[in-house]
C-alpha cells in the first residue's frame, strides 16, 4: 500500500512540475526520500528494507491459528461424539418400539412365538406357522432387524421387562449390560 502511495505521489508531482503549477518547483525535493517502485529505500528510522507488493503470514501467526483451531477441536469433538452416541441410542429405542409393534401384529396373527425364537419371524414365515395364519412380512426390509451399530436386535420370550416379550439391543458393545452408548435398550423400558 505504501509503495502504491509513493508511486501515485511521484506521478502526481511529476505531472505538476511538467505544467509548472508549483511556482516553478519541479517537485523533486519532495520525492527525495520516497523510493522508486520495487527499490530499496531508506525510511524515517534509518532502516533499509525492500517494499513488498503483498504481505503474507508470519510463522508465529500461523502457529497461533493452528493452536486456536486445535483447542477448538479438543473442546468441540468430545461433545459432538457424545451427541452422535445419544442419537444412535434414540434411534435404537425407536426401532425397538417399532419392532415390538410389528411383533404384536405377528402374535395376533400367528400366536406367541416359542422361547428362543428370533426376530426374523417378522420377515420370513417360520416352518411351524401355517401359511394361512402368517400375513407377513411384517417389516419392509431385513435391515430393520439391525440396530444402529449393525447388530441384530434380540427377541426374548417371555420378556424380562415386558410381560410377553422384549426386543433388546445390547448397545454399541453388543454385550449384555453396560453404560452410556453401550447400555442395553429394551422396548417399553423408560
CATH superfamily of the largest domain: Glycoprotein, Type 4 Pilin
Figure out the total of helices: 2
Structural class: mainly alpha
The H/E string reads: HEEHEEE
Domain count: 2
Residues in β-strands, percent:
5-15%
In total, the number of strands is 5
Poorly predicted sequence stretches spanning 5 or more consecutive residues:
1-7, 19-27
In this structure, how is the largest beta sheet organized? 3 strands, antiparallel
Radius of gyration: 39 Å
Separation, N- and C-terminal Cα atoms: 67 Å
Briefly, what CATH class of the largest domain? Alpha Beta
Oligomerization: single chain
What global shape is seen?
A: elongated
* Major sheet strand order: 3-4-5
Give me the secondary-structure topology.
Layout (H helix, E strand, L loop, with lengths): L1 H18 L20 E3 L5 E3 L8 H52 L43 E3 L9 E4 L15 E2 L4
Antiparallel strand pairs: 1-2, 3-4, 4-5
